[in-house]
Design brief:
It is a single chain. Helix content is about 40%, strand content about 15%. The chain has helices spanning about 25-30, 35-45, 65-80, 90-95, 105-110, 130-145, 155-170, 195-215, 220-225, 260-265, 290-300, 320-335; strands spanning about 5, 15-20, 50-55, 55-60, 120, 125, 145-150, 175-180, 230-235, 245-250, 275-280, 305-310. β10, α10 (about 260-265) and β11 form a beta-alpha-beta unit. α1 (about 25-30) packs across α3 and α6 (about 130-145) crosses α7 (about 155-170). The chain is globular, with a radius of gyration of 23 Å.
C-alpha cells in the first residue's frame, strides 16, 4: 500500500499533529475530493484540521480524533487503490462506524462463498455493504432460506435484498425474482386511483421499481417482466401461490397483518429464498390491527434457517441528516416512554 503514517516528536500542547504520507498523487487528489470537500467533511465531523503539504496530509487536533481521522483516511486510500470510488456517503458511514479497524469495510468483509470481499455484482453496478450490520445482512441473505431485515429507513434493507436477488438470478441460482409489499397508504387517504389494476398498484410498488432499475437496464427489466421472470405485485396477490425457485422480497412488512404474514411465509417453495424487510416505527395499519412483522419476529425467533438482522441509525446510507433525524426521533421516543 502506498501509504505511511508518521507521528512526529511532541509539539507544544496547543499544536498536535500526525502526518500521513501518500505516494500516489493521483489517488491523493481523489482522496481529498473536489475543492478538498472530503477533507472538509472529515474536519467538520471529527473536529480536526487537515492540511495538505505536497504528498502529505497533516492532521492537527485532539489525539483521539487524529487517530480516528488517520484510520479513516488510510481506509479511504486503500479503497481507492482497489479502483473503487470514495463519496460522501462512504465517508459518513466510516465516521459513524468509527473505522475502528483502520481498513475499509469492503476489504475486510469476507464472502461466505470463499474469502472474496462481499460484493453484489449486477448488470449495471456492483454493490457492497458499507457497515458491519449490512455485511452480516448480505451474508444472511445468502445463507438463510428466510431472512429478516428490521430497522429504520435508509439503512439499505430493501436495496441490498433486491441487489442480492438480481445477483442470484444472474448467477442462475434462482429462476425468477418476486417483489411484493402491502398496498397500505402511509398516513393519508389517496381515494380511488384511476387506471387499470397495474396503474392502481404501481404507486405503492415504485420503490421496488427504483431498486431494480439501479441494477438492470430498463429494457431488460421490461422484458423480464413481460416474460414473468420478474414479478412485482401487492402482498394480497400472493395468496394461493407456491413460490418455487425464486428470490422473494417482501418490503414494508410492518404493514402486513398477522394473517397476511403467515400466508406469505407459507408460500416459500423448493429452491427459493425469502427476504422480509420492515421498520417497526412506521406501522400504517389501522389502530388495533397488530403488525404481522412484530408477531413473526416473536414466533420465529430461534427457528433454524431463519435469520434476523437489526439495523440502527448508524447504518443509514442516505443523506447524513437522515441518521440524525432518526436519532432525534429515537431520543424523543425514549423521553416519552
Amino acid at each position: 500500500m502506498g501509504i505511511s503514517a508518521l507521528t512526529p516528536p511532541p509539539l507544544p500542547d496547543n499544536v498536535q499533529e500526525t502526518l500521513l504520507v501518500l505516494e500516489d498523487n493521483r489517488l491523493l487528489i481523489e482522496l481529498c475530493g473536489q475543492y478538498d470537500r472530503n477533507l472538509a467533511q472529515l474536519e467538520n465531523a471529527l473536529g480536526v484540521s487537515i492540511l495538505r503539504r505536497g504528498n502529505q496530509l497533516a492532521l492537527l487536533g485532539d489525539p483521539t480524533a487524529r487517530l480516528q481521522g488517520l484510520e479513516i483516511l488510510q481506509a479511504l486510500y486503500a479503497r481507492l487503490e482497489t479502483g473503487k470510488p470514495v463519496d460522501s456517503g462512504e465517508i459518513d458511514a466510516m465516521i459513524r462506524m468509527g473505522a475502528a479497524t483502520g481498513a475499509p469495510a469492503a476489504l475486510e468483509q469476507m464472502d461466505m462463498f470463499g474469502g472474496a470481499p462481499v460484493e453484489l455484482r449486477t448488470r449495471r453496478k456492483s454493490v457492497e455493504p458499507r457497515t458491519a450490520v449490512q455485511k452480516a445482512y448480505v451474508q444472511s441473505l445468502f445463507t438463510n432460506d428466510l431472512c429478516f431485515g428490521i430497522g429504520p429507513a435508509g439503512t439499505g434493507k430493501t436495496y441490498l435484498a433486491v441487489a442480492a436477488a438480481v445477483t442470484m438470478f444472474i448467477g442462475g441460482h434462482v429462476d425468477k425474482i418476486i417483489l411484493s409489499r402491502p398496498a397500505v397508504e402511509a398516513g393519508e387517504r389517496l381515494g380511488f386511483l384511476p387506471g387499470d389494476l397495474k396503474e392502481k398498484v404501481d404507486p405503492f410498488m415504485q420503490p421496488l421499481y427504483d431498486a431494480l432499475n439501479d441494477f438492470l437496464p430498463a429494457k431488460q427489466v421490461q422484458k423480464m417482466m413481460e416474460e414473468k421472470l420478474i414479478e412485482i405485485a401487492p402482498l394480497a396477490f400472493m395468496r394461493g401461490r407456491t413460490l418455487a425457485n425464486a428470490f422473494v422480497v417482501l418490503d414494508e412488512a410492518q404493514n402486513a397483518t398477522s394473517m397476511q404474514m403467515k400466508m406469505f411465509l407459507t408460500r416459500l417453495g423448493e429452491g427459493s429464498r425469502m427476504a422480509i424487510t420492515g421498520d417497526r416505527t412506521q406501522i400504517d395499519l389501522p389502530r388495533g390491527v397488530p403488525s404481522g412483522l412484530i408477531e413473526a419476529e416473536r414466533i420465529l425467533a430461534g427457528v433454524q434457517g431463519v435469520g434476523f438482522n437489526y439495523f440502527t441509525s448508524k447504518d443509514v446510507v442516505r443523506h447524513p441528516l437522515v441518521a440524525r433525524i432518526i436519532e432525534a426521533y429515537e431520543r424523543d421516543d425514549h423521553a416519552a416512554g
